[in-house]
TrEMBL record:
PANTHER family, per the entry: PROTEIN KINASE DOMAIN-CONTAINING PROTEIN-RELATED
Keywords: ATP-binding, Kinase, Nucleotide-binding, Serine/threonine-protein kinase, Transferase
Protein name: non-specific serine/threonine protein kinase
EC number: 2.7.11.1
Domain Protein kinase: 41-336
Catalysis: reaction(s): L-seryl-[protein] + ATP = O-phospho-L-seryl-[protein] + ADP + H(+); L-threonyl-[protein] + ATP = O-phospho-L-threonyl-[protein] + ADP + H(+)
InterPro entries registered for this protein in UniProt: Kinase-like_dom_sf (IPR011009), Prot_kinase_dom (IPR000719), SRPK (IPR051334)
Enzyme class, UniProt record, top EC level: transferase
Organism: Aspergillus lentulus
GO molecular function: kinase activity
């Protein structure tokens, strides 16, 4: 992990992406005002970051777009998106999948980076539902039904194309942003919030490593977003996607969203997306996940059993062993 004590401390140093991710094969150091693809895309704001990429708002000569920088020699997400495009009679957005506009590579101090340019998207479902939860509000019933239908249609399209998404979650589902796609920059920033930066400075006066950004940028907060009742859903981030029949051995899963077959079974397939979709629909209604997770698969499964009441017979022996092991772990010693 990067030693942050050598840098001038500020809020963004501790609340944004880790500096340790700026390394060979990691993030490309992007700054506001940078341009890509021979000046075509100019960076305006940061929208977010993940394990493999940072996401930036950029201005195109023709429209506002969202370059998603994926840092690897070859992009699994790009291959998956191209596969879905071949199975779409119209644009991917018509199937509630994020629309890919452009793809190119960019050479930087940390290596050759695959850059994907997507349609402008609004905030994630997680962000919007958290705001609803904090304010004590709930989504309208018609919005819940519409979001549910669109999510299931997106998953159905992915499955019909012979793929699985593998990582359906509130962070990987966002709202479209058609109302803001062609507005002036100042109008867009009224919704996103103005870009906030902090210069990255070493306390010892030494120059920054070439692989680090010159300043940290605060991700857009979408505080003035009010369009979830007018915009459609978009499923994004197909980095974990896989072809049916070529499932990976493991999936990167948030604990509370683990599908039971990835806990009990030696094999899973594209239908893990349906379990995750069920968790999302529950989230739409109740604004929280149906399960909590504290690094304990046994406690998670106990909640699942309480929710669905009975496991498939083939999984019952494994659950019995988990319960037995749990009892042995908490059995008091003699004399206690």
């Amino acid at each position: 992990m990067e030693d942050l004590s050598v840098y001038h401390h500020g809020n963004l140093l501790h609340t944004q992406e880790r500096l340790s991710s700026y390394r060979p094969g990691g993030y490309h150091p992007v700054c506001l005002g940078d341009t890509f693809k021979n000046g075509r895309y100019k960076i305006q704001h940061k929208l977010g970051w993940g394990g493999f990429s940072t996401v930036w708002l950029a201005n195109d000569r023709e429209c506002v777009a969202q370059p998603n920088h994926l840092f690897s020699q070859g992009s699994r997400e790009l291959r998956n998106l191209r596969h879905l495009e071949k199975h779409s009679g119209r644009s991917l957005s018509s199937k509630y999948i994020v629309q890919l506009f452009d793809a190119f590579t960019h050479q930087g101090p940390n290596g050759l980076h695959q850059c994907l340019v997507f349609e402008l998207l609004g905030p994630s479902v997680d962000k919007v539902l958290t705001d609803y939860y904090d304010s004590g509000d709930t989504l309208e019933t018609e919005d819940i039904l519409r979001m549910t239908e669109q999510l299931l249609e997106a998953i159905q399209f992915i499955h019909d194309a012979g793929m699985g998404h593998g990582d359906i979650s509130g962070g990987n589902i966002a709202f479209s942003c058609s109302n803001l796609s062609n507005v002036a920059e100042e109008d867009l920033f009224e919704v996103l919030g103005l870009p906030e930066t902090e210069e990255l400075v070493r306390l010892d006066g030494k120059p920054l490593d070439k692989g680090l950004p010159k300043h940290m940028v605060k991700a857009a907060e979408w505080d003035e977003w009010v369009d979830e009742d007018e915009e459609d859903l978009r499923v994004l981030d197909l980095e974990e996607g896989f072809l049916q029949g070529h499932e990976p051995k493991t999936l990167s899963q948030p604990g509370q969203l683990q599908a039971p077959e990835t806990i009990f079974g030696k094999y899973f397939d594209h239908r893990v997306d349906l379990w995750r979709a069920g968790c999302m629909i529950y989230l739409f209604v109740f604004r929280r996940s149906p399960f909590w997770y504290l690094d304990d698969d046994g406690a998670l499964v106990e909640q699942m059993v309480g929710f669905v009441e009975k496991l498939p017979e083939v999984w019952q022996p494994a659950w019995d062993r988990m319960q037995l092991n749990s009892k042995h772990q908490i059995q008091p010693m003699e004399g206690e």
